[in-house]
Amino acid sequence: MSNSELATSYAALILADDGVDITADKLQSLIKAAKIEDVEPIWTTLFAKALEGKDVKDLLLNVGSGGGAAPAAGGAGGAAAGGEAAAEEKAEEKEEEKEESDEDMGFGLFD
């Protein structure tokens, strides 16, 4: 990661920690206050657009969560729904195993 990206990332984290909206101008002013001169304005604009309307703290807390599985159905048909969910999970596992076996044979997207 370049110094420009790193400086802009840190500035975005500072703004998010303070609960301030992340804009290109605010990022640029923080970077200048830190006396980092070699950051081009394109970096602050890119980061501001990428983080616009997003909760940075929430993004950081859910880094490893991925898409996750759908929650199991509960309530009136709990036992039947639970059996269906288990069957769906087994089907998904079989599909994943099938995909993995293609890679073992040396076939790939870019081969």
TrEMBL record:
UniProt xrefs under InterPro entries: P1/P2_N_sf (IPR038716), Ribosomal_P1/P2 (IPR027534)
Disordered: annotated segments: 67-111
Compositional bias of kind Gly residues: 67-81
GO cellular component: cytosolic large ribosomal subunit
A GO MF term: ribonucleoprotein complex binding
Compositional bias of kind Acidic residues: 94-105
Keyword tags: Ribonucleoprotein, Ribosomal protein
Gene Ontology biological process terms, A to Z: cytoplasmic translation; translational elongation
Superkingdom of the organism of origin: Eukaryota
UniProt keyword Ribonucleoprotein, yes or no: yes
Entries under Pfam families matching the protein: Ribosomal_60s
HAMAP family in the record: Ribosomal_L12_arch
Subunit structure: P1 and P2 exist as dimers at the large ribosomal subunit.
Protein family: Belongs to the eukaryotic ribosomal protein P1/P2 family.
Function: Plays an important role in the elongation step of protein synthesis.
Protein name: Large ribosomal subunit protein P1
Species the sequence originates in: Lentithecium fluviatile CBS 122367
